[in-house]
Design brief:
- This protein is α+β, with helices and mostly antiparallel strands.
- Helices cover 16% and strands 40% of the residues.
- The protein is globular.
């Protein structure tokens, strides 16, 4: 009887202990979380473990087209990383901005799954004023990116139609759709896909961190000469307005009829002429002969699966939608560290400035303060371009600041880069 009582007591104690101390949950080997598409860039919420055992919630930019890890100065300080700055350190891809460097964090947490930064040797930290310590890239609300050198260790799925992002150990994500064998750079995991344009073969990178697609100057000029009737313009507006370097108002932009990209036939896509200095940098980093890159603007109707372990990219069609990225007010903007937006230029429409220029209109160097009374300071590029978009013919009232003086300019939404010749014929027949 005493033995039975003792056993019962032990069982009750064990049950009570198990209730108070449940077994640890196993870490997931794949997760799916919501993603935001901001100016065609993928942004997710992540947690970063801090030295005191707590975690910091931050926004992360998922960028398979960049091999470098980047952190904001604020996040590097919270992580107590040793930051060093060198005047010779330049980021050649983003308008030669100065940056500092530090050891990388050990890991981030995505949807409860730990993502260690295996093989990452350093983090880049933009050299910003103290009041912009949380700014990783002007015009974006993020403090860290997840580069190709981290993504390469996983299966990755960008579900643009569903606004979902998945990441998991190799073999854990079931990819669907058409597939293509990719060339993946062994050093930095950048992806190139075999492509055809006008029956000629090229390599084009897959860069889902880019808001717009780019062709090399040679390819762009060749297509321009062969197809003068394809819609073209000068000036980076809409999704072509990436970061606001000084030359964006002069960028050449064109609507291309058809590109065979891996297994896909992409129609009616907008591309920018890759400035030569950036193309040289990009081609050197790619490590193979390349003619440019396909950015997110051309793939927003797809679910894109990256099977790094098998050097394969999957494309699953998700919806049919025409994104009116170029039904906008014709401005080229530069996001500033303090959250303001500087106007760099005004694009022409049908041979005339699309917004009134001059002393009573828009001049380069003006600041855009509000659109229809809604302040833009502190907004992202995607949010501002949503305000500047609309149905062609709609009027927007722009609040402008120049040398301390505020005034209003009326501007009309224009249909930049109109239909290709075949589209015009189809519309006439309807």
């Amino acid at each position: 009887m005493k033995f039975c009582t003792a056993v019962c007591v032990l069982l009750v104690c064990a049950f009570t202990y198990s209730q108070d101390n449940p077994p640890p949950q196993s870490e997931p080997n794949s997760v799916t979380i919501p993603m935001t598409i901001d100016h065609n860039r993928v942004v997710i919420n992540v947690e970063v473990p801090l030295p005191d055992g707590s975690t910091q919630h931050v926004r992360a930019w998922v960028d398979n087209g960049d091999p470098d890890l980047n952190l904001s100065r604020r996040l590097a300080t919270q992580l107590q990383l040793a930051v060093s700055c060198n005047d010779n350190e330049k980021d050649n891809e983003k308008d030669n901005d100065d940056h500092c460097s530090s050891p990388p964090p050990q890991e981030i947490i995505v949807g409860g799954m730990k993502i260690p930064f295996i093989g990452v040797k350093q983090a880049k930290i933009p050299l910003k004023p103290v009041n912009a310590a949380s700014v990783l890239a002007p015009g974006m609300n993020v403090e860290i990116n997840i580069p190709s050198t981290v993504l390469r260790h996983y299966d990755v799925l960008f579900d643009f139609p569903g606004h979902k992002f998945s990441i998991g150990a190799p073999g854990t994500i079931h990819f669907r759709g058409e597939s293509a064998k990719a060339q993946i750079n062994a050093d930095n995991a950048l992806i190139q896909l075999p492509s055809q344009i006008e029956r000629k073969k090229y390599n084009l990178a897959l860069d889902l961190g880019a808001s717009i697609s780019f062709f090399s100057e040679d390819l762009f000029d060749k297509l321009t000469a062969a197809h003068p009737d394809w819609p073209q313009m000068s000036g980076a507006v809409g999704s072509a307005n990436m970061w606001g370097p000084a030359d964006e108002p002069k960028w050449k932009v064109m609507r291309v009829d058809r590109v065979q990209y891996g297994p896909l036939f992409l129609a009616n896509i907008v591309v920018v002429d890759f400035p030569k200095d950036r193309m040289d940098f990009f081609a050197k980093r790619a490590g193979v002969q390349t003619a440019g890159l396909i950015g997110s603007n051309a793939l927003l109707n797809y679910r894109i699966g990256l099977d790094y372990a098998h050097s394969t990219v999957y494309f699953e069609f998700g919806r049919m939608f025409n994104f009116p990225d170029f039904d906008v007010i014709g401005l080229t903007l530069r996001p500033e560290n303090d959250g303001r937006f500087t106007i760099l230029g005004v694009a022409d429409f049908e041979g005339k400035p699309s917004v009134t220029p001059g002393p009573d209109g828009i001049q380069p160097g003006d600041h855009l303060l509000a659109v229809d009374g809604i302040p833009v300071q502190g907004s992202t590029m995607g949010q501002v371009w949503s305000m500047l978009g609309g149905t062609p013919g709609q009027e927007r009232n722009l609040t402008i600041e120049r040398a301390g003086r505020e005034f209003t300019v009326a501007a009309t939404v224009q249909h930049f880069l109109g239909e290709l010749p075949d589209e015009k014929e189809r519309k006439k027949k309807k």
